[in-house]
Design brief:
Elements: H1 10-16, H2 42-49, H3 64-77, E1 81-85, H4 88-99, E2 105-109, H5 114-126, E3 130-134, H6 139-145, E4 150-156, H7 168-177, E5 181-185, H8 190-193, E6 203-207, E7 221-225, H9 227-241, H10 247-258, H11 260-279, E8 284-288, H12 298-304, E9 311-316, H13 320-329, E10 334-335, E11 345-347, H14 359-365, E12 371-375, H15 381-393
Parallel strand pairs: 2-3, 2-4, 4-5, 5-6, 10-11
Antiparallel strand pairs: 1-7, 6-7, 8-9, 9-12, 11-12
Helix pairs in contact: 1-3, 3-10, 4-5, 4-9, 13-15
The structure holds pyridoxal-5'-phosphate.
The site of pyridoxal-5'-phosphate (PLP) has 13 residues, from helix 4.
Length: 394
Amino acid sequence: MSDDLEQLHFDTLAIRTGHQRTPEAEHSEPIFPTSSFVFSSAAEAAARFAGEQPGNIYARFTNPTVRAFEQRLAALEGGESCVATASGMAAILATCLALLQAGDHIVSSRSIFGTTTVLFEKYLGKFGITTSFVDLTDLNQWQQAVQPNTRILFLETPSNPLTEVADIRALADLAHSHDCLLVVDNCFCTPALQQPLKLGADIIIHSATKYLDGQGRIVGGAVVGDADKVGTEVFGVIRSGGPSMSPFNAWVALKGLETLSLRMQAHSNNAAQLAEFLHQHDRVEQVYYPGLLDHPQYQLASSQQSGFGGIVSFKVRGGREQAWNIIDQTRMLSITANLGDTKSTITHPATTTHGRLSEQQKQQAGISENLIRVAVGLEDIEDIQNDIQRGLDA
Ligand SMILES: *Cc1c(COP(=O)(O)O)cnc(C)c1O
């Protein structure tokens, strides 16, 4: 495809960006399972290594399949550069290694992926980088937590599992007024539903393991942002630190992107119907879904997202016994903590994803014993509902 891809629409970019057809004239994107590349002369090798000539060198940091995925995802997020990584966690680690140094400080939402909390506190902490955690939706707390050495504001929106929604534009303004970067983990919405760079965010994190692949086949990640911070700095960490994405995984995720917006729309439609069904069920105490009119940030979600996503959480009347009973009565839904798959999954956060939190932390985060999270897949919504209804009606 030619240079004027930016003028094309999202669904076209998702299908057409990134593939450089080879002399074999293949239609579908090829996989390049090669660790190294060959030079035509010693002088060419020297020019490549010196960075004077662009081109492939070694697959830890240059591989055409990986590059096709990076270019496609960059186009979808509206970013200059994308760097693919071995996992979502590798994307966060590489971003922090690239942009932070000892003595720096992160302000992070408290409602982030559990392993990200461990990375910030335990591992970055070892190298003198500290983190303060705040309520995602309380702008005041973000403001109060910023210190002279703060470099990064970090968040996920909507949050997991309670689907709170952050005001990305307001937090980007706050970050920039303190010379900080806003880093958004856009795993739950994907660029099909939300494009944080367009709202002022500086860096986007992805776990390609989730909706980008969308069929539960690979572990992968990506960082998207400008040519300097991501294209040079994060890329440098991948080149020298090595958490690269494999060509096969890049190919799977690349093909996943082609159907991303169709799938996200279908996930959202199914999730909206499930949320409505649960909302009306008298054994359900509360439903968490940004597309419900009584969601506290319904207006904000409507303005910064083009769909409400596939995650629905709810509190059943009772406690752990009632919640576990609903999970155990399902016959189709997968009891697993993963999400972003065509298959619906059901989770009890208090004893799994959030099981490491203390009682007080759970209470603070709203992770009660009667809370269930459903990552709504693409099965027929009636079958999903019936599977959950069995335990609810019991
Ligand atoms: C899964 C996930 C991650 C980590 O991604 P991996 O690919 O499992 O390393 C990070 N952030 C969010 C929001 C996730 O759901």
